[in-house]
UniProtKB/TrEMBL annotation:
Pfam families linked: Nramp
Localization per Swiss-Prot or TrEMBL: Membrane
Keyword hit for Transmembrane: yes
Organism of origin: Haladaptatus litoreus
Protein name, entry field: Mn2+ and Fe2+ transporters of the NRAMP family
Tagged with keyword Transport: yes
InterPro entries for this protein: NRAMP_fam
TM spans (from-to): 12-32, 44-67, 88-116, 122-140, 147-166, 186-207, 228-253, 273-306, 318-335, 341-364, 376-398
Membrane topology, record value: Multi-pass membrane protein
Keyword line: Membrane, Transmembrane, Transmembrane helix, Transport
């Protein structure tokens, strides 16, 4: 495939990282950004910036692994660390994503009910069935890339539009760029916020997207551009939500602990336009996460056990439907994603996240596998700092799981 050297060509080529951005900006990241802005104002604004830098780095490392070796992460893992390590990574990656999936099923239900009326469980069922049918369309990657470009565009317009209607205190916002935690609770909230933006499972999926895109080493420049721009858009959306919450809620007696609550608080401040803009953004964020999150989990599982892991493979489609179906069943029974399931997801992530991060970092810096495309010193340093962030995230998960027992 020839290189698309022009800026316009590179912009048209952006896609794989946007797929990741579309799944990472979901109900969880929107909710925690809302809570962070409403509770601490602009003081935690630096966290999504740092998390975005780590996400770009790990996405770029994963992309280079896929492009240079021509293998997925778990295919390269089998060669370097053996079959069992790949299977453990695939199994725990799938189970972790599966446990988080119910939040996406619930999110699309609540967003639809707020916009169109009706029961959240009914809407969750409608969109889950529609998403399952979508999986069986031909040339699925092209369909998903088109979908996420629309979704990300709508989210940008919706969330930036909401912020424009309420305004920003730029002086206070600039002060939030200085890394600091106002108190001990802010540390735990900050780690949770970082976890929703720096998704190592999504970064790993970039090795698969390189195969779907059919890119090789001639497209490394385009892939670098894709990783930076696509994931930067993710960071921008999360920052905009945090800024909106800080402008509307912080310093008042109001509170909001969900996207629906945030939209409700916007209405008296900026009118119905802001209310519907924010809910529209939440709806599309939930829709893309519903599809792509389950697809990532299924792909990791199938690839971990050595089966064909392209989007067109039958095992990937079937396991994606299983993940969606289980998520829907939880919502229909419990009405939402219960805290017990969240704690189970966190417990599984304690194994999955450090392992996946280690595999990406160790393989990307292996000169025997990567040759001249192995990590530079700068990428190694940022990657190591990102790995420390992963350890911080799982330690926070361990704390929350222990407090629940």
């Amino acid at each position: 495939m020839p290189s698309t050297a022009s800026i316009s060509g590179r912009l048209r080529a952006i896609g794989p990282a946007l797929v990741l951005a579309a799944v990472v900006v979901g109900p969880g990241s929107i909710t925690l950004s809302t809570i962070a802005g409403g509770t601490y104002g602009y003081q935690l604004l630096w966290i999504p910036i740092a998390a975005t830098a780590f996400m770009i780095t790990y996405t770029w490392m994963a992309a280079r692994i896929g492009v240079v070796t021509g293998e997925t992460l778990f295919q390269a893992t089998r060669n370097k660390y053996g079959e069992r390590t790949a299977q453990i990574g695939g199994l725990f990656g799938f189970l972790t994503i599966l446990a988080f999936q119910a939040g996406n099923n619930a999110g699309i239900g609540f967003a639809s009910a707020a916009l169109f009326g009706g029961e959240p469980q009914l809407w969750a069922g409608v969109f889950t069935v529609a998403a399952a049918g979508f999986l069986w369309l031909p040339d699925l990657y092209e369909k998903i890339e088109t979908l996420v470009k629309i979704v990300v565009g709508v989210m940008l317009v919706s969330f930036v539009g909401s912020l424009a209607l309420v305004g920003v205190d730029f002086g206070q916002a600039v002060s939030g760029l200085v890394p600091a935690f106002p108190n001990r609770s802010a540390i735990f909230l900050g780690l949770g916020l970082a976890a929703t933006n720096f998704s190592i499972a999504a970064a790993v999926y970039q090795t698969h997207l390189m195969a779907e895109k059919d890119w090789d080493v001639d497209q490394l420049t385009e892939e670098g551009f894709d990783s930076i721009i696509g994931i930067a858009i993710l960071g921008l959306i999360v920052m905009v939500i945090l800024l909106t919450s800080a402008a509307v809620i912080y310093g008042t007696s109001k509170s909001a602990f969900s996207a629906q609550g945030m939209a409700t608080q916007l209405r008296p401040v900026a009118g119905s336009g802001a209310f519907y803009l924010f809910l529209t953004g939440f709806f599309f964020a939930s829709l893309s996460s519903l599809v792509v999150n389950a697809l990532i989990g299924a792909t990791l599982l199938v690839d971990g056990f050595g089966y064909g892991s392209s989007m067109e493979s039958r095992p990937v489609k079937l396991w994606t439907m299983v993940a969606m179906g289980i998520g829907l069943a939880v919502v229909l029974i419990a009405g939402e994603s219960p805290v017990e399931l969240l704690r189970a997801a966190q417990a599984l992530a304690i194994v999955a996240f450090p392992l996946l991060g280690f595999l990406v970092l160790s393989i990307a810096r292996d000169e025997a596998l990567m040759g001249e495309y192995a990590n530079s010193l700068t990428v190694d340093i940022i990657g190591f700092l990102g790995y420390l962030a992963i350890i911080g995230i799982v330690l926070n998960y361990l704390r929350e799981v222990a407090s629940f027992l």
